[in-house]
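Journal club side-thread
Mid-discussion, someone asked how the predicted structure for our own chain would compare to the paper's figures. Pasting it here so we can look after the session.
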Amino acid sequence: MAYRDSKLKLFTGNANPQLAAQIAEVIGVELGRLQIRRFRDGEVQVNLGESVRGCNVFLVQPTSAPVNENLMELLITMDAFKRASAKTINVVIPYYGYARQDRKARARDPITAKLIADLLQAAGASRVICMDLHAGQIQGFFNIPLDHLFSMPILSHYIEDKQLKDIVVVSPDLGGVTRARRLSERLGAPIAIIDKRRPAPNVAEVMGIIGDIEGKTAILIDDMIDTAGTIALAAQALKDHGARSVYACCTHAVLSDPALERLEAAPIEEVVITNTIALPTDRKIPKLVVLSVAEIIAEAILRVHEMRSISELFD
């Protein structure tokens, strides 16, 4: 059924047009006419093909790899909407790049998550819609409304439908305990924690496991899988400590090399991910199960446009 309010306009950049098309289908609108090309020197050229004057514009653009390319597309397109007199510019960023640099871990470190927030606001964002931020405090980096969505309902429903026995939800590190507890409460399962240290970026070492996992079906839960070093190491540690089987799930499948090779070699039955980041066909492996977040994002967009509550989605 077509959505009748012409003041809602939905556009997409080049980062994940497949997800944007799914969102448009759920809402019942057509994607707006927007062409994003490159000059020969690599500069971004944006051509907005329809009027957005007085409209609530929603732009879907995760800042996934190539991160800087997609980020510049996003900023320049927002500037085009602002200069075309859009009433509001609502930026839908299913995956928020640079989120892992959210504080000064060492002397003279940049806080790039805050820098991105400043850039988005300077470019004209009225509101930001994100999903499963790596660090919740990033919400406080903005002086505009930010709606934080969660994929937990989608992931938990999938796991429930599999009717697995003797489940234990496992956090791959101490920082993910809150996320693991949310899933465990939905599944009515206990949790376990892997005590991990990271001596260098993208390098992890397991120090021990807190909790009972012997003979159980372990569900590893994280917000993202990048090089898959943490997940592969955690899965092997769980098997070594007596877990019957291991499943892994996350929201953001970054999957930088050598992630696919590590996942294929790891003792994991399935890796359940969502489509916040576009997954090319040539990077799909049998272990990967991709769930769509289109319905949750579409419902959030409608609620923002119609000035209804977002939190009710997750109550």
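Post-session note: The two ends are 27 Å apart (CA to CA).
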